[in-house]
Write a structure and sequence with these properties.
The complex is a heterodimer of chains A (270) and B (296).
Chain A (H helix, E strand, L loop, with lengths): L4 E12 L2 E12 L3 E5 L6 H8 L7 E6 L2 E2 L4 H6 L1 E4 L11 H11 L4 H14 L15 H12 L6 E5 L7 H16 L3 E5 L3 H5 L3 E6 L2 E6 L1 H9 L6 H9 L10 H11 L6
Parallel strand pairs in A: 3-8, 3-9, 6-7, 7-8
Antiparallel strand pairs in A: 1-2, 1-4, 4-5, 9-10
Helix pairs in contact in A: 3-4, 8-9
Chain B lengths: L15 H16 L2 H25 L2 E2 L2 E2 H31 L2 H5 L5 H24 L11 H27 L8 H13 L8 E5 L8 H9 L9 E4 L2 H9 L1 H14 L6 H25 L4
Antiparallel strand pairs in B: 1-2, 1-3, 3-4
Helix pairs in contact in B: 1-5, 2-3, 2-5, 3-5, 3-6, 3-7, 3-10, 5-6, 5-11, 6-10, 6-11, 10-11
Classes of the chains: A alpha/beta (270), B mainly alpha (296).
């Protein structure tokens, strides 16, 4: 590949005690690429994403993001990535602009730069009119748009999106997806995980993980050709062919338990 | 082919802008949540006014102080415990479904974020703890500007210590499904076992005291005679005393009672030592627990 790699990993692995979450991951994502990582629940997508975003330390192998090692140069990695998590990482009692201001301070933007970045983010996310409203009054789609705009404020080299359209209505999903594609067209490298295979169809390349291993990696068209023997058909067929039909039930994690608690009536400590 | 690495200037662990923005965040959250201020007033009215005057009617003096006067620093402490622990425990939300993940993937120093949170907890503790002090004139306690300033200092240190302890606790909690367990399991034991509502030992004014006119009693208090004839000398059972001595809040409360009422039950040097050292220790523990969250 002639374009420089923005993300590279060799034999990357992570285990928690006896459990192997990710094993022997070999991957390279080029500059300007829109890359999607797919896989059933518990396949190791999130753990991989956490290793790339310096949230989890790899237990074997190595990974470089924008040329920096995730294990030994975490601070540099953090400075040049943008991350949008599955669940909003916002303070819901603060307003949109207050949340954006926190981001600017975290990334060390200067005062003038901060003002400009906040105005730009609000405009880009179509939220300028509600900038002074607390986020608890925002819909899921509005929060996701705000987070996407926020993750761009410090002009990252690589954007990580963890299930960016999860939980959005079809309108919100289409809208957000258009923005993600717009970013790709603007030259930004985007690494995302998703369950929506239609979205993956529009990516430059997709990787499919199962049980901690990367079992397929290519363009959507090439994967269809390899697995189904023709370019007709869908990625969903490829996915099911490779990962089987068995249900992957997972136990509710603390996060899920707290979210369902919040939905039952919540608590002021949120 | 890989992108060339460019070095970035390393950021110091203490960044005032980061501390300030997270302190401000706690303040904004507090100011927008009327239920917290309501809680401060309702606790004051229930404990200080209703319990204070109610129990005070049957239980005249503790070492010459009315019951309401005696529990005033205790009610301040109760408000501080609630305020500081609410700030601290919200860390579980921040970590699982809130803004802390945004912090962890950013290049900012978590130490500064933690410090902002702790200072926010301490500030809110002082504000919430001041609510019972507004009722001081009602129960016959007059605070001079100097004693109020000293009280605020002790309250801020107590708020810092409790927020720090709470952050450490929150960092070890996997999930949060209600403040009830904190309220019943942490706040109430710390409150009841701090000498807040009953003395460790002392003379409880009894029969003869009722007939003494106020001006004579004031005169006797000034002479250091806090109770005369007919009072009961009370002392807690040894096991209860042990628990009270083991509770660090006891010492903060003792100093607070010293500066607001000029009455202390414990060796002043011991209390002052705890008040000075514990906040430093819990701040270190809390910032360490938060910095460690970066890589789980």
């Amino acid at each position: 590949m002639s374009v420089p790699a923005v993300l590279e990993c060799h034999d990357l692995g992570c285990r928690y005690g006896e459990t192997v979450a990710v094993e022997g991951l070999e991957l390279s994502v080029g500059q300007g690429e829109l890359f999607a990582l797919l896989g059933p629940n518990g396949a190791g997508k999130s753990t991989s994403l956490h290793m790339f975003t310096t949230m989890t330390r790899p237990t074997s192998g190595s990974a470089k993001v924008a040329g920096f090692d995730v294990a030994t140069q975490a601070a540099q990695v953090r400075a040049c990535i943008g991350v949008v998590f599955q669940e909003p990482a916002l303070d819901e009692r603060l307003t949109a602009s207050e949340n954006l201001e926190i981001h600017a301070v975290l990334y060390g933007l200067g005062a003038a730069q901060t003002r400009q970045a906040i105005a730009q983010a609000l405009e880009w996310s179509d939220l300028a009119g509600v900038a002074k409203r607390p986020l608890r009054t925002f819909s899921g789609g509005m929060k996701r748009r705000l987070e996407l705009a926020r993750s761009l404020m410090h002009t990252p080299k690589l954007l990580f999106l963890d299930e960016p359209t999860l939980g959005l209505d079809p309108q919100g999903r289409i809208h957000l997806w258009e923005r993600v594609q717009g970013l790709r067209n603007g030259g930004l490298t985007v690494f995302m995980t998703t369950h929506y295979l239609q979205e993956a169809e529009a990516c430059d390349r997709v990787g499919i993980m199962d049980r901690g291993k990367l079992i397929a990696l290519d363009t959507p068209a090439a994967l269809k050709q390899q697995v189904l023997g023709s370019e007709r058909g869908s990625l969903e067929e490829v996915f099911i062919q490779l990962t089987g039909r068995q249900l992957r039930d997972e136990e509710a994690k603390p996060r899920d338990r707290m979210l369902s608690f919040a939905k039952r009536g919540g608590e002021y400590t949120k | 082919m890989t992108l060339p690495s460019t070095s970035l200037p390393a950021r110091p662990a203490l960044e005032i802008a980061v501390v300030r923005v997270f302190w401000r965040r706690e303040m904004l959250r507090y100011l927008r949540d009327r239920s917290q201020v309501f809680g401060a007033f309702s606790r004051t009215i229930l404990w200080l006014v209703i319990l204070g005057f109610g129990l005070g009617a049957s239980f005249r003096d503790i070492e010459g102080y009315t019951y309401a006067q005696y529990i005033l620093p205790g009610v301040v402490t109760l408000n501080i415990l609630f305020a500081a622990l609410q700030v601290a425990i919200s860390l579980v939300w921040d970590r699982e479904v809130g803004i802390l993940r945004e912090v962890l993937v950013s290049p900012a120093p978590v130490f500064s974020v933690a410090l902002g949170k702790l200072l926010g907890g301490a500030t809110i503790a002082v504000l919430q703890g001041t609510v019972p002090l507004l009722f001081a004139p009602l129960i016959g306690v007059s605070l001079t500007p100097a004693s109020l300033l000293l009280a605020w200092l002790v309250m801020a240190l107590m708020g810092l210590a409790v927020t720090g302890f709470g952050v450490f606790l929150a960092s070890r909690m996997a999930t949060f499904e209600g403040f009830g367990s904190i309220s019943n399991g942490v706040i109430q034991p710390l409150y009841f076992l701090s000498g807040s509502i009953f003395p460790l030992k002392g003379i409880i004014g009894g029969v003869g005291f009722l007939e003494i006119p106020d001006h004579i009693r004031d005169e006797l208090n000034r002479l250091g005679i806090n109770a005369i004839g007919g009072g009961w000398v009370v002392q807690l059972p040894w096991w209860l005393q042990t628990l009270v001595y083991l509770n660090p809040i006891t010492y903060f409360l003792d100093v607070l009672r010293g500066v607001t009422l000029h009455f202390q039950q414990l060796p002043p040097a011991l209390s002052l030592a705890v008040v000075a050292i514990l906040p430093v220790f819990t701040t270190a523990l809390a910032t360490y627990s938060m910095v460690r969250m970066r890589r789980r």
